[in-house]
Amino acid sequence: MADKRRMNLHFLGTAGYHPSDRRQTSCLFLPEAGIVLDAGTGLYRAAPLIKSDTVRIFLSHAHLDHTFGLTCLLDIVAKKKLRKVFVYAEQAKIDAIRTGMLHPLMFPAEIPIEWIPLESMRDDTMVIGKATIRWFPLLHPGGSIGYRIDWPKLSLAYVTDTTAQSDSAYWDVVRGVDWLIHECNFNDKEREFAKMTGHSWTSEVLQGAKRAKVQNLVLTHLQPVSESNDPLDLAQVLSKHRDIGPDRVMVAEDQLCIELNSK
Q1: What would the pLDDT profile of 104-128 be if each residue is shown by its tens digit?
Q2: N or C end of the chain: which has fewer CB within 10 A?
Q3: Tally of domains within the chain
Q4: Predicted TM-score (pTM) of this structure
Q5: In the sheet where 114-117 sits, what is the strand order?
Q6: Is 3 part of a structural domain of the chain?
């Protein structure tokens, strides 16, 4: 079972908005669990990492920087001979993807996906193997969904495309999680633009994660055309605000792999 093996988290794409020479857009992969979090342009990198005949993709919302990678599934399914690809999302987001990006005039091939509306579940939690997966709403234009995954000895939460306000309800959901993967689309100097577009900035994420007693914080979904994408700038920001965040804070890079643990 997944919790008895080494659990690796691969960052296949770490940018928001659009890809750059340095970063593909948002996509995380847990090969041992067969779980993908968002399907940005980085999804094409998943093929050599797949360890099972089933992959489950959990979408936060339908914006293209989180869904365009679904068009790569034709190659991935063919290469890996996948038996099933499940995609979980809110029904309205599924409808938008299927009638928009995957409309025959936009993508003239049928992708072998089994679509699972989150509303079809009995409540906001499902169990897959040893993992309990909970989803929760986030404030963002058009709406977004965050996820928390709990194994017997490990917990991880994924929060993207939202403003990390101190009174945001999701902080209670992710409280005490071992690993929080949180968007940091802007730095502190761009906080007003972050508020306008429904995104987060550095110090607000750090403060929220510390209040929620998060053990490890990884910043991702970085703005590709902003100085917040500059590792030197982020290092300065993190150094300046080190005392307001969790003990361990990392900035994700494409193809970073973290061996997860609860320590």
Answers
A1: 999 999 999 999 999 998 889 999 9
A2: C
A3: 1
A4: 0.93
A5: 114-117, 84-89, 54-58, 35-37, 27-30, 8-13, 257-259
A6: no
